[in-house]
Amino acid sequence: MRSNRCSALCRSSPGSWLIRPRKLAGVLARLAIVVGASIGLLAAAHTSLETTASLVTPSSISGWNSTYVQHSCLRAVFRHAVPKGTSVYVGGETTPASQLLLEAAALWANPVLNESSARWIVSLQPGNECVGYTLHAQRRRP
Amino acid sequence: MIAHVIEALAVLIVPAVLPSVTALGARPITVFLIPLVGAVFAAVAAELELVIGGTILEWFVILVVSANVVSLIRQRDLIVAPRGRGRRVHAAHENHRQGLMWRWPSAWPIFTVTVIGLALLWPLQALRAPVIAYDGYGIWTLHSLFIYGGHSSFLNDLTNPAYRFSNPNYPPLVPASGALGFAVTGDSSFRLAVVITSVLNACALGAAACGIVAISEDDARVVPRLAALAAGVVVCLIGFGLSGPYGVGGYADLLWAASAVAAIIIGLLLPPSGKRLVAAWVCATVAGLSKNEGFITALVILALLAVRYIPAQSRHRPAARAERAGRGVFSSLSFWRTWALRVAFVVIAALPGIFWTMYVKYRGIGSDFVGSSSQSVSLRFHATASAVWENFHVLPLAAAVALLGALVLRPTRRRLQVGNDGWMWVVVAASLAALFITYVFGALEIHWWLSTSANRTTIFAQLALYSDMAVWLAVAASAHPVELDAGAGPPALTRRSRSPSLEAPPYAGEGVA
Q: Is A91 part of a structural domain of the chain?
């Protein structure tokens, strides 16, 4: 009942002192939203700028280039070592090395999980052919 | 390389211009949605290649030619005058022509697109280096090669158990866009596909930013408009920041997350209109065709769009009231008709994603992570909760801002005709629930799995909460002191209502973003 009266008073005289605490609370709440959201958003944006900057430092670029050259090189070497369309075995389980070979085999050879059904066995050894790896391809005897 | 990138992007973008402008109008958001529309065409072309045969390029040409012919027929109204002579016929034609016109109403949209575009260019500078991370090679560019190889290669490789590690059931939008680039340029380098994906990521974030900017587009004052634009720009930067190398490394996570956020803002928060519905549908389709978790989230968004755009019949209408009184709520015809329409809307809108999901299921194409684990459900749940929380520190601040906004800024939100942001929270909750179920009941060792993916799979939830704060910031900047007092009526401050001398937006009621 009392609040209804206050509400009526507030509407009838917008400049009266009765309206001030509520209005002040509203203004403060709005300020809190603006400040809270701004701080949260700007802090995240700042982190974002730092993240982007960290991706393009000379050492990062060198690392990305190295990985890219490794993948491109393995793809080219694989195509040189294994005839097109043949079945290849790169290992029974998915390891980082076998995954590299499976990616290199895409659009060129048909990878199989069973060694006995493959015509070629391909593996990666430590070496310098493709940034830390050397590809070994061996034709299986029938 | 640069020439190949330009060529590939041109093929993705140019054929999508006319259909996009026809469906969405010449608006800032259209600029960012055009490449995404092109990517949807590429994804559907890849689906047709897989199911029917042929190559992605052939199907893409068929699809874009068809879409452009339909758009040209619709745009014909720009040139051809109507046959009727009545004043009403001409007025209707003029209204239609205004809606189709290829010009922007003022310099503000150009300024908006320029600022958002510049903000998106900053993170894209990382493309100077071939930033391709693990799944960039192991899933996304690999699938691009599968699609590029044509029908037989695509089908054989997806069903080959040796490639199961690459999650062959992942939706085709990202690899299809790369494969289209390969097909057009004849260059199947990983980097080309990754650059295309990064541009799509940027466009999805640009669409979300345009949605935030549109909150204040009818406000005549400069400060609220600039505040909304700043909030949109910051969301663009945050999107790339949350993703780190994944945003520019060929991953699909940022694309589905940003598209889903854009769909929520445009379809569930901005005032409803036909063109906004189309824009939201495009964004939801992109999300659904980008990744499995994106598909689930897109279904939730489309369901909420259906509820919003197909409202239940008014319970105060005499016929409906009589029907309810006679038969009860659930047995009334209107109740079932409404829900049937909503279900039909979701199924039709999600058709490309549903088609893909059903086809890979039919072919027995699975994922690396589907199966059973020897770890206990309790252990997996606690590990998941811990990993998700590590990436979710924005939650308390976002919840506080949303709560305070709901309490204080409701009159402003209503005057701006912005929908309830509870929609956003519902989608985030549903998406997180799907994520928990996947992790808890998945096959992979949970700690390794979470350490390699939790920071990516939570991008959507984080971005959505940051976007919610940006929406409240835009609403708060538009608030008038009178509105901060509960019980005060909304002031007339919009361009449409404040002064008749100010030009009303030409597409009022038909806005996109």
A: yes
Let me know if B20 is exposed, middle or buried by CB neighbors in 10 A (0-12, 13-18, 19+): buried
Both A75 and A117 in a single domain?
A: yes
Pairing status of strand A133-139 against strand A110-112: unpaired
SS3 B502: coil
Looking at the fold, whether A67 and A132 belong to one and the same domain comes out as: yes
Residue A70 lies in a domain: yes
Examine the domain organization and report whether A6 and A42 are in the same domain. Answer: yes
Size of interface A-B (CB pairs under 8 A): 159
What mean pLDDT value characterizes chain B?
85
Contact assessment for residue B131 and residue A55, using Cβ atoms and an 8 Å cutoff? yes
The number of beta carbons lying within 10 Å of the beta carbon of residue B403 is 11
Looking up tokens 């050259």, which residue turns up?
Answer: A69
Looking at the structure, tell me whether residues A128 and A70 fall in a common domain: yes
Range of the domain at A73: 62-139
* Identity of the amino acid at B202: A
Asked if A17 and A83 sit in the same domain, the reply is no
Instruction: Kindly state the tokens that stand for B335.
Output: 């109740």
Q: Per the domain annotation, does A56 fall within a domain?
A: no
CA pair distance A17, A82, nearest whole angstrom? 88
In chain A, residues with a C-beta closer than 8 Å to the C-beta of B126 are: 52, 55-56
A22 has a chain B CB within 8 A of its CB: yes
* Residue B110 CA, distance from chain mean position: 22
Please, which pLDDT band fits residue B83 given cuts at 50, 70 and 90?
low
CB within 8 Å of B460: residues ≥ 6 apart: B256, B257, B260, B261, B293, B294, B297, B428, B431
> b/e string for B360-391 if b means 16 or more Cβ within 10 A?
beeeebbbbbeeebebeeeebeebbeebbeeb
CA distance B126 to chain A (A): 6
CB atoms within 10 A of CB B422: 12
Residues on chain A touching B485 (C-beta within 8 angstroms) = 10, 19, 22-23, 26
Say yes or no to pLDDT of B299 above 90: yes
Q: Nearest to residue B453, comparing CAs of B253, B290, B260? A: B253
- Retrieve residue B187's tokens: 């260059």
Q: Give the whole-angstrom CA distance, residue A68 versus residue A71.
A: 5
- Both A13 and A68 in one domain: the answer is no
For B20-72, give the secondary structure using H, E and C.
Answer: HHHHHCCCHHHHHHHHHHHHHHHHHHHHHHHHCCCCHHHHHHHHHHHHHHHHH
- Can you tell me the ipTM of this complex? 0.82
What single-letter amino acid sits at B401? Answer: V
Is the pTM higher than 0.80? The answer reads: yes
Inter-axis angle of helices B274-288 and B351-362, nearest 10: 20
**From the candidates B237, B452, B458, B465, which should be mutated to test the interface with A, based on the most A CB atoms within 10 A?**
B237
Q: Are residues A75 and A127 in the same domain?
A: yes
For residues A69 and A134, state if they share a domain.
yes
B129, two tokens:
């280096």
Both tokens of B513, joined, read: 């973003």
Report pLDDT digits (tens) over A28-75. 888 899 999 999 999 999 998 898 888 888 898 888 888 889 888 999
Instruction: Answer whether residue A20 is part of any domain.
Output: yes
* Residues A119, A116: Cα–Cα separation, whole Å: 8
Tell me the pairing of strands A120-130 and A87-89: parallel
In 3D space, the residue among A73, A68, A75, A133 whose CA is nearest the CA of residue A103 turns out to be A75
Beta bridge partners of A133: A126
The Cα of B30 is separated from the nearest Cα of chain A by a number of Å equal to 25
